[in-house]
């Protein structure tokens, strides 16, 4: 597959009263055309900051992208002017944020908010923008879209608001959709509907890709082609979805998979728990970021950061348990 997005050495830091928070500290990641890539990890691992960095939405101050390259179709997004990056946002790359109620403006109608995206990027009449807004709301399953265009976000349920967010994100047929925990705060039935909707909409758009950010590996198993596991501001493991579930390498990935309930086998198994919690971002370990919670930690782990190596074809891991004779880091 052709490469759509390539992130190299991305570092996004936040300067706070407590010191420098290295939220993203050397991330390397690829997304191919037509691919659904899952980015998983606990809260505080750097997933959302990575997504916001792609679109340069990091609040400055206190945040700043201090190093790295983000190549989108060969163009480095970090070197574009503000006018150029605004042209890409919502057009070539769109994002569905975690909480639709805070992402939608409560004082504007749904119709105005969908039409705004169209008119910001394309020179079309108000009537044409209205028609396309009605069409996209119909496409995402909003009933009676002509009437709902006149209503405000508080008139919509949580699931319907998330559908509106997806409509806004996809109305201009972007090449890349970034979905940052799009099913947060939705019940299980609505979660499944939203995920199915995103995949269905992607299928209608040739070559479109999705970066799905979540902490739910069960969701990843159902929707993604590949998955990247993130912890401590770094990518710890990358693999095709089947490979990761069958033969995970990193101890952190083992811990995440062990927390998923299973109905297979003759008897129920006890769910495993990763001991401790994500360390304070201001006081991350010097070596392996997972060392304080890893049951397999040994001599080099506290002081030496392991490189990201290709341990087997297409399967990358950052861990001292594996020999470093593999291919160089991405």
Would you mind describing this structure in some detail?
With 330 residues, this protein is of the alpha/beta class. The chain has one domain (3-92, 174-317): Rossmann fold. The protein is 30% helix and 24% strand. It has helices at residues 47-54, 82-88, 100-103, 110-121, 126-139, 145-148, 158-170, 188-203, 217-223, 241-246, 251-258; strands spanning 3-16, 19-32, 36-40, 63-72, 75-76, 93-96, 176-180, 209-214, 226-231, 234-240, 309-312, 315-317. The strands form two sheets. The chain has an eight-stranded mixed β-sheet with strand order 6-7-8-3-9-10-12-11, sandwiched between helices. The chain has a four-stranded antiparallel β-sheet with strand order 2-1-4-5, with helices on one face. Strand 4 and strand 5 (75-76) form a beta hairpin.
